[in-house]
Predict the 3D structure of the following.
Amino acid sequence: MRLTLRQLHIFTAVADTGSTTAAGLQVALSQSATSGALNELEALLDAQLFDRVGKRLVLNDTGRALLPQARAVLDGAQGIEKQFGLAGGADKDMGLATHLRVGASTTIGNYLLPALVASHLRDSPATTIDVTIGNTSEIATAVARLEVDVGLIEGPCHEPELHAQPWLEDVLAIVCAPSHPLMRADLGARVGLKALRTQRWLLREPGSGTREAVEHALLPHLHQWVQPMQLGSTEAIKQAAAEGLGLTCLSLCAVQDLLTLRRLVLVNTTLPRLARRFYLIRHRQKKLSNSLQRFVSRCEASDPNRLRES
């Protein structure tokens, strides 16, 4: 076999950093050695993998196609090292090092994942878990690039190389400030579609699983947003709603704290029950280690009510 792990490691480092100088620092090689190894790989494959833009190296279409395959090979090699103890350290039941990388979209990462991680670490104290939080699109991309081992997302997955497994059902709630004009007459009164269509809605950014779920659930009834306000985080939306800036539709677990404090109230509408599905995603080529399989099994067996109360 003429292709080497070293070449693939250098290739992914250059892809991540955008230069042979920075990649060399990452893989502990000189710039000239890194550049030479990259040239060897391109010569071996008889293909250019990067476009040279000034001093930067930018992946071309061929390089983008190779990158997930290279990451999968390197990930498999690292798994072998861990399996046979070559990475150092010890796993409590296998004598192996255990380092998990978990990605989660914002709502899950902020309100559900901490309880899952705490529960897992109580049973596997030698495990290290790194958590990456972003919107659904960002986490799906990270899983596709094998930058994280597994992802928990709150929207449909559109990456063909990923396996998406339905996880928990999440109830969506329409909320606003108690002082909102819709609430002044009667907090328990049902609000019809005509009134909802004229309100300002507070929304997450495109690419967010919450934004996609809310649009899927509400736009068939509201038809369009009237002067929507876009905010980049669930916490920002909650605070804006509590200040009376508009209505919003968020995960019930995300707004439960402000509902308890009466800074937000539920809007009783004529709409049907609103809910969405959370998903557990992983790369189709990803081999689950025993430790990662235990974490996945814990997610599968988790009680959503207990997670929300934690």
